[in-house]
Write a structure and sequence with these properties.
The protein has 291 residues and is mainly β. It has 2 helices and 19 strands. It is 9% helix and 38% strand.
Length: 291
């Protein structure tokens, strides 16, 4: 009986150890959506868009369903200056966010950069052009058997656990500054390569069914009524977001091919994002100005 209990105890330990080891070695393996976190902290912190400030910060993991600010598309760059570079983007709050660094500090602070996000898509560049400041490279950092940084360990064979940024000043800026607390900025430097974890949420599909911008005419600027004309029979929902990603208005649509009208008189003056959603996953966003 004691031997059987010992075997069960050892089996449970192996299962728990294996699970923690797998979790500790979360790697980039394919183009897709990921959560990006530190390694070895308790708890680990995640790259997060701060809904209040629009900054990129480290934060504790948010619960499923409320974690859009921590989900990133990590895929091949749409026009890499050289091979193997990635773009890291988010559509948090219906806005196109691109992970980058600020132009002001590129020439003076290299390789020490504060990584941030900008409300745009990645820049389209020619070969050898790093001016977009949004070209990242996945690499490998040596780890021990638990997936923690260890210069005497080995590189993971099945994926990547390090992240570099390439700019006009060089290619040696990397994640190497471990945050001390939630709310810290995301900082890269030229020192040791720290382990960063890529937690796969969903592998990318081959193509995305998206509305064509030429299919719609959206009134802009607007005063009291937002009007959408075009192939509106394809739209089943309209959502309006603030620039900080907060949903301020939403309307379900089921009106054939008639124009869509939303009363926006209660919105404050400023810029907003209008998102059109289709029943088959189509999506279109456009910035508008509320007068």
């Amino acid at each position: 009986m004691k031997k059987q209990l010992l075997k069960l105890t050892m089996l449970a330990f192996v299962v728990l150890f294996s699970a923690s080891t797998i979790q500790a070695q979360a790697l980039w393996t394919v183009n897709g959506t990921y959560k990006i976190s530190t390694s070895g902290l308790s708890p680990n912190l995640y790259m997060t868009i701060d809904a209040s400030s629009g900054d990129l910060v480290w934060a504790e993991e948010l619960a499923d369903g409320a974690d859009a600010a921590q989900i990133w598309s990590v895929i091949d760059h749409r026009s890499p200056a050289s091979s193997g570079l990635m773009e890291i983007t988010s559509d948090f709050g219906g806005i196109d966010w691109t992970m980058t660094t600020a132009p002001a500090n590129v020439s003076t602070d290299h390789p020490g950069y504060t990584i941030t996000v900008e409300q745009r898509v990645p820049k389209t560049v020619e070969a050898g052009d790093w001016s977009g400041l949004d070209q990242f490279q996945r690499r490998k950092a040596k780890v021990n058997s638990e997936g923690l940084a260890d210069a005497g360990g080995s590189n993971p064979s099945a994926g990547n656990n390090a992240l570099f940024l390439q700019t006009p000043e060089g290619t040696n800026s990397r994640y190497g500054v471990v945050p001390s607390a939630a709310g810290d900025a995301v900082v890269f430097d030229g020192g040791g390569i720290d382990v960063i974890q890529f937690h796969l949420v969903e592998a990318a599909v081959a193509s995305v069914n998206t509305f064509g911008a030429d299919k719609f005419s959206i009134s802009n600027p607007v005063s009291n009524q937002l009007t959408i004309k075009g192939t509106t029979s394809k739209v089943n929902q309209v959502v309006v977001y603030s620039l900080l990603g907060n949903r301020v208005l939403s309307k379900a649509i089921n009106n054939g091919n008639e124009d869509i009208s939303l009363n926006v008189s209660a919105l404050s003056t400023g810029m907003y994002i209008v998102e059109l959603n289709g029943e088959n996953g189509e999506r279109l966003t456009k910035k508008i100005i509320k007068q």
